[in-house]
Design goal:
The structure holds 2 protein chains of 2 kinds.
Chain A: E1 2-10, E2 16-25, E3 30-35, H1 41-48, E4 56-61, E5 64-65, H2 71-75, E6 78-81, H3 94-104, H4 109-122, H5 138-151, E7 156-160, H6 168-183, E8 187-191, H7 195-198, E9 204-209, E10 212-218, H8 219-222, H9 226-231, H10 238-247, H11 253-262, E11 263-264, H12 267-272, E12 276-277
Parallel strand pairs in A: 3-8, 3-9, 6-7, 7-8
Antiparallel strand pairs in A: 1-2, 1-4, 4-5, 9-10, 11-12
Chain B: E1 2-9, E2 18-24, E3 30-34, H1 41-49, H2 51-54, E4 59-66, E5 69-70, H3 76-82, E6 83-86, H4 99-110, H5 114-127, H6 143-156, E7 161-165, H7 173-190, E8 193-197, H8 201-204, E9 210-215, E10 218-223, H9 225-230, H10 233-236, H11 243-253, H12 265-275
Parallel strand pairs in B: 3-8, 3-9, 6-7, 7-8
Antiparallel strand pairs in B: 1-2, 1-4, 4-5, 9-10
Helix pairs in contact in B: 4-5, 4-6, 5-6
The chains are: A alpha/beta, B alpha/beta.
Chain lengths: 278, 277
């Protein structure tokens, strides 16, 4: 479990990037974090890896206070894929890039080999096995950073803008990977501006604005609050706009039939009393 | 701009990155360049702004002409004034101490006389509505503001063609929409042509007049957003068909709505509403 207790983080220049954040993320939960540029989303997830330590308050990862432990110790448990892949790619080959952390964590050579192949295959990078990471396109670099992290099987996976540079087919695969991680009990935190990507995940959604959390709940509940979203400079997903207009209509066989074809009741959506849009 | 039978292969690469590619664009167009990652989009952009063949070596054949001049025969100095380039991350192209100096940077390099420079910087700053930021330090600005500053620097050069490489991917949804609206306004006011590489088509289809899809270095689709997104071929090339367009496709198949053009979520909803009456 990840727990933020009244966390405030003040940058050296005096800017308050996090302003009294209290948040609990259960093990196995998938959470999307959205909000305007500069709202504190990246600062928030850097606290989970211990890369940043709170100015006041505390961050606990599985009960361990990030101030009482090293970033190295936390990194075995928490994997983070940064927004800019150039900040974390440095090896001579794509294969070495994935193997690096595995060796550092003391994985035996046969397992390193196996995990490298698994990662390359999962993210469609096999043809670049021996290539330098520098020859990859922006989208491919991004996928390589994901492969690197998933290869060592951390319990918590944090993805900062994972869809940048990804075409629709890759995004679909990425959504599949996130669902797969969720179903195997991993905790997944996705920071993204890509609302159309997040909506079908139907996860818990946290909306941030000026270092604070302004909304937190299941996607069908949060992503339908148009005014709140707009105040945080986030837009409603397209299907939500359409759905909202549809439900304002008096019921008719046409609307009923249309609704039945468009919306599928998801588990989480049922909990919140609203149909999910897939 | 005309691209005529362009092929390019990087040294030691087994395949051509761009293969027999032909495309003609008129004044005042907004063309979205789409296709799976690694399909040759970036190579094509480099061939338009002259980095290929001036900075990258390889097997080059065919021709690219911008405003009548062949890119391979033009100097980078001349190309800097005809083709503008906005990077995905504005931090890659803004670095001066004030916004105004940053916007003037390209002009200073060209040795544009001071009064002319002043005029063009003021004009670019005015067009982007960043007058109040002109004395600020670029690194203190928000990401959306930085993106505007970078675009002002590009506009000050008065290029006929501006390339935008995933310009909205690091912007929040509202800021991204504002940037897209700004591009539409600049096209209208200045007649500039824009080539935009973008995966978030939901934002761009409102303003683009054309979508070109590449796959494995080859042009595979070229048409209006309606034609490209209604043809299901686009799905196979990784084109992000907007969710509301998928709904429209489904409804159009059953003849519930027309398929003459793309509808927004609000338009589609109002059509469904009216159907009942």
């Amino acid at each position: 479990m990840i727990e933020f207790r009244e966390v405030t983080y003040v940058h050296e220049n005096g800017v308050r990037a996090l302003d009294g954040i209290t948040l609990k993320i259960d093990t196995g939960e998938t959470v999307a974090i959205v909000g305007e540029n500069g709202a504190g989303k990246t600062t928030l997830i850097k606290h989970v890896t211990g890369l940043l330590k709170p100015t006041s308050g505390a961050v606990l990862v599985d009960g361990i206070d990030t101030r009482q432990t090293s970033t190295a110790a936390l990194s075995r448990r928490v994997g983070i894929a940064f927004q800019n892949p150039d900040h974390q790619l440095f090896s001579e080959s794509v294969k070495e890039e994935i193997a690096f952390a595995l060796r550092n964590f003391g994985f035996p050579p046969s397992l390193v080999e196996q995990r490298v192949s698994w990662g390359l295959q999962l993210f469609g990078l096999e043809e670049y096995r021996e290539s330098s990471p520098l020859v990859l396109s922006g989208g491919e670099k991004k996928r390589l950073t994901l492969a690197c992290i998933l290869a060592w099987d951390p319990e918590v996976v944090m993805l900062d803008e994972p869809t940048v540079g990804q075409d629709a087919i890759q995004k679909e695969k990425l959504a599949g990977t996130i669902r797969m991680l969720g179903s195997t009990g991993k905790t997944v935190v996705v920071v993204s501006h890509d609302i159309e990507f997040l909506w079908p995940l139907q996860s818990r959604v946290v909306v941030m604005k000026s270092g604070r959390i302004v909304a937190d709940g299941p996607a069908p509940e949060v992503m339908t609050q148009k005014e709140m979203l707009e105040s945080a400079r986030v837009a409603e997903p397209q299907l939500v706009s359409f759905y909202q207009a549809l439900v304002r209509r008096p019921r008719s066989p046409f609307v009923d039939a249309l609704e039945a074809r468009l919306w599928i009741e998801g588990d989480k959506a049922a909990d919140s009393g609203r149909p999910a849009v897939t | 701009m005309e691209i005529e039978n362009l092929s390019f292969r990087y040294p030691d690469a087994p395949k051509k990155a761009v293969d027999s590619f032909t495309l003609e664009m008129g004044e005042s167009e907004i063309v979205v360049l789409a296709g799976p990652s690694g399909c040759g989009k970036s190579t094509l952009l480099r061939a338009i702004n002259g980095l290929i063949p001036h900075m990258y070596t390889g097997d080059y054949s065919g021709d690219v002409r911008v405003a009548g001049s062949s890119v391979k025969a033009s100097s980078m100095r001349d190309l800097a004034q005809t083709v503008g380039f906005l990077f995905q991350n504005p931090e890659n192209q803004i670095f001066m101490f004030t916004v105004e100096r940053d916007v003037a940077f390209g002009l200073e390099n060209l040795g544009v006389p001071r009064p002319e420079m002043r005029r063009r910087v003021d004009e670019a700053i005015g067009l982007l509505g960043i007058d109040d930021l002109s004395q600020r330090a670029p690194h203190e600005l928000s990401d959306g503001q930085k993106q505007r500053v970078a675009l002002a620097g590009v506009l000050a050069m008065r290029p006929r063609l501006i390339i935008l490489d995933e310009p909205t991917s690091l912007l929040d949804p509202k800021t991204a929409m504002e940037l897209v609206d700004l591009v539409a306004r600049l096209r209208k006011e200045l007649g500039t042509t824009f080539v935009v590489v973008e995966h978030r088509l939901d934002l761009l289809v409102r303003v683009a007049n054309r979508i070109v899809v590449m796959n494995a270095g080859v042009k595979v689709l070229d048409g209006t957003p309606r034609d490209v997104l209604f043809g299901e071929a686009a799905d196979g090339y990784g084109v992000a068909v907007p969710a509301v367009t998928k709904v429209q496709r489904m409804l159009a198949k059953d003849r519930f709505v027309a398929d003459d053009r793309l509808y927004s979520a609000a338009e589609l909803a109002s059509i469904v509403e009216r159907r009942d009456e």
